[in-house]
Amino acid sequence: MMHEILRQSLRWAILVTLITALLSILLHAASATLLRGLPLWGGMVVVLIIILVGVVFDMMGIAAAAARECPFHSMASRKIPGARHSIVIIRKADQFSSFCNDVVGDISGIVSGAAGFAVVVALVVSLDFHEGRWLLETLTIGLISALTVGSKALGKTFSIRFANEIIFRLGKLLFILENRFHIRVFNVKNKKKRKRKRGVLRAPRTD
């Protein structure tokens, strides 16, 4: 049993590492491309969007860990769309939270810092303010860190309090993606277990 758990954990860790590397490269390349063609205020908007993405995914990961499974069973028995997907999210809360909080959350923090640095460079060049560059960099990184930490703190309070509502809406989104666009994130098919009948006596065979 312990060997199986370790094997699954190692497999998930390797997968998360590969996904993190791929996403960080894609997001950094995308943000760098956007910042290159945008004015200064547009670069600030990009930074805020990256921070918002990290906060939203952080809220989803915490909600998955804090949500309760029981209310969704009655909803699933009534065949309410999204209920079964919500149950799967809660049952896989460890992997889901790891992806949302560790992968997307950490990447957004790194990329937002890099994007903020690019905005500072553009500001220094436009204002010809090279002597105070270190001050602008310090203030910008401090502002980005404050916005990120403060927004995540507010989001955590909200996601813990309304965990089931958040997961249900996320389950509805996964339901729509699967049924309308044929994009399956989780396998929600019911696995019917065959039950052996006990106490049934067969008549002896007669030749």
TrEMBL record:
Transmembrane keyword on record: yes
Keywords of the record: Membrane, Transmembrane, Transmembrane helix
TM ranges: 12-35, 41-67, 107-127
Name the UniProt record assigns to this protein: CNNM transmembrane domain-containing protein
Annotated source species: Salinithrix halophila
